[in-house]
Amino acid sequence: MDSYTQILKNGLWANNQAFVALLGLCPLLAVSNTVINGLGLGIATTLTLILSNTIVSIIRHHVGNEIRLPVFVLIIASIVTAIELIMNAFFYELYLILGIFIPLIVTNCSIIGRAEAYASKNPVGASAIDGFAMGTGFTAALVILGAMREILGSGTLLANAHLMFGEAARDITIHVISDYEGFLLAILPPGAFIGLGLIIALKNVIDKRIKEPRKQIVELPLTPKKA
Q: How many Å apart are CA 9 and CA 19, to the nearest integer?
């Protein structure tokens, strides 16, 4: 079993489901036009990952190999349905904006993938941490891409924060670029593809820099050794 530190590192960076595994791209590209939209979907996905991984790990010794995938899908669908009902009750406007992408969390490959590849083979604690790490990494991808697209597309940051944090957050919108007419491409699907490609390229550059061996300085003696 991997250490919790390694699990967190894999989920947040080394095996980030959006930037490395390239899973869940449909909701990632569709709803990441603002930070709040991305954060809302990211939290819902993270909760699903944590709960599904935990439940799958608990029942892993009691489900036969022949039926494990249908059982996993049923568990995930039940969790997503509960989250959808909660969002409909308490975050109705945000729920309407996210629309079909909330129930489509069931079909997110990263969720069923973690249930099958990790939670079904590891203890409850490690599986829950794995779900948290993978979900947080996916949420970070949504928020980063959403921030980039929102700034370039509208010149703002944290617009419509009241949809998630209540009326008290209505005035926390940051106008990064004042009197900005907007850049339409940034908030359209092609802009999402371009933005994601740039972020992945930046991550690859950082990974390459980290892996480069440090040059060791070899000090030569000032005087030759005597024979």
A: 14
The HSE-up count of residue 100 (CA atoms within 13 Å, CB side) is 3
| SS3 of residue 129 by DSSP | helix
* 3 CB neighbour count, 10 Å cutoff: 10
How does strand 174-175 pair with strand 156-157? antiparallel
Determine the Cα–Cα distance for residues 2 and 76; give it in Å rounded to an integer. 24
- Whole-model pTM over 0.85: yes
The Cα 54–Cα 76 span in angstroms is 11
Distance CA 11, CA 26 (A): 19
Residues 118-174: tens digit of each pLDDT: 999 999 999 999 999 999 999 999 999 999 999 999 999 999 999 999 998 988 999
SS3 category, 64: coil
Q: How far apart are CA 32 and CA 187, in angstroms?
A: 8
